Sequence to fold (539 residues):
Amino acid sequence: MDRREFVRMGVAAGAVAGGNRVLAAPAGAASKLGPGGILDAGVWEQQQMMEAGKLTSHSLTSQYLARIKTIDKSGPRLNAIIEINPEALKIALEMDRERNLKRVRGPLHGIPVLLKDNIATGDRMSTTAGSLALNGVRAARDAHVAAQLRAAGAVIIGKTNLSEWANMRSTHSVSGWSGRGGLTLNPYSLDRNCSGSSSGSGAAIAAGLATLAVGTETDGSIVSPASICGVVGIKPTLGLVSRSGIIPIAHSQDTAGPMARSVADAALMLAAMTGVDASDPVTREGAGKAGDYRAALEKGGLQGKRIGVARNFFGSNDELDAVIEKALLDLKAQGAILVDTEVPNISKYGDSETEVLLYEFKADLAAYLKEYAPHAPVADMADVIAFNQKHHQQELPYFGQEYLERAQAKGDLDTPAYREALANNQRYSRAEGIDQIMREHRLDALVAPTGGPAWLTDFINGDHFGGSFSSPAAVAGYPHITVPAGYVHGLPVGLSFVGAAYSDAMLIRMAYSYEQATLHRRAPQFPASVNIGKAWGQV
Fold:
């Protein structure tokens, strides 16, 4: 193996010399494995077994690949994985070799990870955003976040399906469907939707197809599928994680973030993902502002914290509200001080958010294709639209491409209408939005239901979202964490923690304390359907 291949596989760069060390457990974390065994275990348990010589990265990776065959490609056929990394076992072997040489890189050393299929990898896998227009197209190099994870010792075992073009294609789209990958099914009820656009990442982590996964979000695409799939999702502050090499929607809101079965695992992954990237200027604003996410994993993180309850995000369903009201009691029991309030001015940036996304999607997609896929058969938005029209039976069988067409009709980023819309977004989501309410009430965070439970997948009418708390933090570029809060007729729902810019570590501390006090998450059983009487979203 020459040095170029060695570095590309992520098995040399960043190796840390020194003795192997057992990853110390987060405060209060249980060491007993659950009924799912090692495949449903977290980073700490897996590292503990590898350090003890009871498990290897190669064995763990092999077991996940076998589970993907059993659960994802047969059996319930979740269809969460769009492509397997043919080099996964080779990388895992090298991680084992490094461990034997006492060169453990850190908490993610040898840990199997999945990437959403809009994150570029300069290996033998394609990077497509679920579009057949990019089918078979290999990226010129790794996205910065992929390179960061490789350097941390993670084993990238494959890529996950997603809502095509990260759900920025049609006003009547079906989340979790892509022309390349088909439909991802919800592990908690196979006839229901996973939400999106990080549908495959959410379903895969819920089903135990990897230890960790990366999702991306413009507005809701991490936290919504995480909530609906009963896992933890972190949308970090804009600027903590580079977007270089991620097929974009909008640079003013896009970010990658971790999806995991526990807050501890998500925090460890976020620590490996952050960092300044010269090719993404916004990361310079985040320089030195990443918190100590591992130190945040301690109980007592809610004691004395003033938390605003965003009441204008309640009321979509009585049963959902009942679950979250119980969560509020749990927060109080952990010492939190709750303040009923409302997030102001959310109606003032709904339309302008869409405008900004359309303008930036057109410009940012062309820039990505030029830099990371110059050999692709499409070079810009117009080419993608034409490809879909030519291959309409494969790409447009259920819904259209209205957002692509609207984006193509926009001007460049010097257009006054774009600049005005962007300024409007930032004003009402930040200074006269989250910042205002947190200052007025001296709050440490805001909480609300992340959204409703999964709806029946509907290829006729499209998605039926049951409310969402994603937009305030998404438009502002502020951190948002969702944690399992319970179930509505067996369908998971999450509790959201939102804070000011760069308060990620504080939110992790609060989310971890809530999670450890409640431990709501249950592994899915893959039922064909659940009987809840009246179907969500179809009343």
About this structure: The chain has one domain: 3-20+36-460+469-518.
